[in-house]
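SEQUENCE-TO-STRUCTURE ENTRY
===========================
What this section holds: a protein sequence and its matching fold, both as plain text.
Tokens: labelled as protein backbone structure tokens, with as many entries as the chain has residues.
Question of interest: how does this chain fold, as expressed in backbone structure tokens?
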Amino acid sequence: MPEYLLWLRILILCVVLTLQVTNGQVSESDESDDEGVVEQYTLARTEVENELEEFYLTAAPGDEFDMHSDAMENLQEARQQLYEAGLPPRDVADLTQDDPGLAHVSAQIPYGISRQKRVIRAKLNRRWIHASVPYVFTNSTSKIDQNEIIRSMRTYERFTCIRFIPWSEENGVTTNNRLGLDHDNYLSFRTGGGCWSYQGNRRILASEGGQKIACCGGYTCVHEIGHALGESHQHQSPHPDRNRMIRINFDGIKPSGHISYQTLNASKVKTDGYDLSSLMHYTPQTFRVSDDKQTFYKFFPELPHKKSFYYMMREVSQEHKCQDKCSDSLLTCENDGYLTLVGNRCYCQCIPGLDPQTGCTTTFKNDPEDIAFPGGKYAIPAHSTGCPDGSFILGSRTQINEGKNYKKSTFNIGLKVSGKNVEQKFCIHDSPPTDKVWPGANLCLYRRGGKCPDGFTEGFVQYNDLPTQASPNTKFGELPDGVFDNNTRFEYCCADTGFSEDNLLLPSRKPFVLIKRRGKDCQNVRGMHIEVRSVRIGNANDGETSLVGGDQPMYKQDKETKGFWTAYCNYKPAMIDCGEVIDLNSSKTEVTISSPKAPELECSWLIKAPVGERLQLDFSDFNIKGKPGRCIDNLEVSYVRPGQPGINFCGPQRNKTTISIYNTIRMRLSTYGESNSHFTAIIKLVKNDSLCYEVSDRGMTYDGDVNFTRDYDSCLPWAKVSHCEMHPFKTDRFNTILQGNKCRNPDQSTGFEPWCFVKAENCIRGYCDVCQIGKRYDSADNCAQLKASSQCTLNHCAKTCADQYPQPNVPVQARDVRCIAPGPAPDGAPVVESKRSYAVGEVVKYKCDYSHTTKLRYCLSSGKWSSMGTACSECPEEFDLRVENQKCYFFPNIQTDADDAYKFCHGKGGFIAFPTSQEENVLLKSFTPNRIFLGISDLAEEGRFVTHTGDTLGFTKWSRSQPDNYRYSEDCVEMFKTSTWNDLPCTGRRRHFICQANRTPLRDCLDFSDNCAELFIQNPIMCKKFPTFAEKHCRYTCGYCGRDDSPSCNVSSPGAGEGDTSELAPGESITRSCDKGLVPVSGDEVRGCQRNGNLTGKPLECTHKCPGNWTLNPDNLFCYRKFDSPKNYKGAQVDCVEHQGKVATAADRDEQAFVFSMKGARGDIWLGLTDSLVEGTFRWADNKLLSYTNWKYWEPDNYGKYGEDCVHMSRDGKWKDANCVKVKLPYVCKVHVEVFAVKK
């Protein structure tokens, strides 16, 4: 094959512009390891194809693609995992077809190929032209598979202009040719290898068999088709708010799954927001290493993680130019709505509750004038009030059987059961077909006219009746298709082509009935509420046959009566003439909303603030039927993006303030049946200039005293969470502000506002209401009792116990705070002449008196300046000094070619780093696992490699057969992942790199940070554990200088320490541990030597530890032991007392987790919790009242004649009350560790 044709073949197969639309949520497919391996491979392959795209866009003739890039190496690893996954060889072959890393062809751009031709090819993109997606089902897909795929296709067709068209070829003319598409590609659905898809339209040749996809079923298929339409994973979104909403926990992710959580390149991904609830978002369990780990943690844990696809569909619609199909339409869609095709008509898709007819500017209060039931011939069950409109004709059928019929007394369907008589009424629809058709849905109809509507399949149910001459079977008016003689046979049309929770658009102002599909929920209809009613119709035992066949709705045959059970969906008009869209602004800063009191409400409100500002929601009156977690009626409140699902509120009160994350709050009140549910809400505008921190830096310069989260969880000291991603000892963040346990935001990219860590394990964090916008509230119901018994806790009873936990001083608005001009530093001064005062967030730059290094000070919300002890540093700004070799390094974590890397480092005052020893070679490799450029080249003289500082190499570590100057074009040097070196071209290869700068010795012995002494007290090992921080910030405190001017610390009784030293120098520390058989009870294991000659902390004290069959809980120093022999509660209690303890409690989340781990995966255990003294007032075995609870749904219920006064932990960790005497269970005893010390 000629070289240019070979190159074109590579280009067609591998090079495409990427349309990667970011939005969506996790699918079921992501839970399987094998399926995960496939997905890792497809993701890695996509990255390589992206690189190929960039290469062909920029390469000149003679250039060669980098076959050793990070992306290519990731693909190699992912491919190897695919080979080892045990998948069928055919599936692996299908998956790896045209793998760019396996192509045995030259990747070089041939000479003589014009750049214009390359650009035309490179502009081929991943959209599906005209929003048309041809597809085929391969022989590997069953009818069930195909139905699931069609369901997902219909979902896209309902919410976008995407249309899926069966692909075929006749006489050399394909569907693509007939549609006028500019590509030959089509989706080729198959089964095998799990659930997976490539991303976007890969423009594969028809002769190659189309673009393979295995999408399984349900929402998983929507997820995978989303990939094929260009969607990428939402948890990989480069949108900055992702890292402000979740923390990716790579320690909790299987190594093979890391690629699925890496942030995508912002230049290759289009995104207009982050959506935690999206269908394209993984769950926290996807690819986790163990059950006690999560792959990511939410910063707003209450936000739902649902299979939502509103924003996903909006992006698919917009990126496929659906709005352009409506260029003649005058419609505009506001409030996050979007213009697309519904059916063949231009239509606004709106967020829940808004009206498409008004361009999503008002709430939905009336059906559109032209709304109608679908045209054609079919029948539906009649409602007790008749048919829904004049397009239907009423008919009925009465059948006689042996009896044994059943229906509930409250039955609003036109179906009467009386003794042996069953009368069913029908609404017959006999109109010609119209453009209004049944969309994808889950429901059944009666057949009429000998044919089912499109998308429905046929079935029947035949009843064996027992009419007599005196009581014959009868009929009246028109009937559905069937046989109506001495027996009764109904012909049905059933559809299983949608998702039940999606709203159908049908007339909603009169009740109607549809037949429920077997195994599915009733299909939602906008503006309607649903109740499900089931009927059993008997069959006679007279030797004749009752039959069912095809796709029909009968879901059960009664074993005793032989009767058939069928369920019906009764649709009741909801009251929708309520709610509104409200704008708050500087002229209208507050609104009060009082809901109506009425049955069957469906009211929506959208409250909006100016973009960039937020809203505050409080309730002065709140009574929604049900209680949290067990709502009967509900008020859904969404305070993220308005199209995302909200949280359901219910109960007799709602005291917690809700503050929106963005600029909207959406509320929807739903009441069912007779209801007195209602609320009065006060929504206020939270103006940026009223806040106590500077909004432009998201509170990075906040310096207030609040030390608890918006949920009133106490903050942990920053110095105690040095294992987490943010702590005072990091040098690449605004760490000097991290003092004590106050709420802070050291990095704008990972926080909307100030926050803190609340749990050290897994580094759980929460946002703080530092400006005290929200009102105090109690989360426990028994706070008065808790306070009376001296059990006040801030996180449960912040309101009732306010006198014991007083609110910090009301903060001053940041706009009113000024910092006076800062003075000079001991070794430097401001670069620019100081102003008289500065606003919060303003910065003053200091320059060292004797070097070019600079430091920044920030005006804080307290009116003080950020900590700074010295203006001079040994390294330039952003560089860190490595103690092991006394050199300055900066790792920018970007990829570029060698020439641009040189310019970048030069602009920072340095050069590309290079090693001068094996130790430095290891040090440089520790910055990143990827390949890196080294500051070495032979550009000046071929074959003579020198450093970027002009020095001859004194140390080398070339890989085998390197350097080889391949194609006479390799003058720069990289370090492989194996730490060996390789020469490579200086352009056309993108690598990470590290900048290095010369060190400037300091003249003065000073701490850069004012709080070093305090940090050392909190973490005495900081100087040893964080040497870079110690050298950069705390040289004096850590004894890096001036040791001769400070006394040493005497250490008595070395004991079992790290060494037997009896004297410590300033900054040094010593670690003590208890002798074998003992555990610590007080004091400090680690103590450090301060500059004043005193040790930090207190001496360590120890006691005996738990015996071998008991387990210590270090949080409370109790020993726990599980006893597997089941006993009633009294027996368990007696046994624990004999062990000088009590039945185990779960008084807080931490003890709950510990006891759950003791319980084991299976079975239940008793908890030391009863309400035997006062019914409904539960007390722990130590007589303390409940503050933390973990009840199972609808528990406690005190069920049964003899009641339930004791509590047990069920298999899933939830609590249930149970009879103390009759129930026998295993149990866990808890005994304080001191008991065993006394025994010894």
Summary: Residues 1-32, 104-124 have pLDDT under 50 and may be disordered. The CA atoms of residues 203 and 244 lie 36 Å apart. The longest helix spans residues 33-58. The two ends are 87 Å apart (CA to CA).
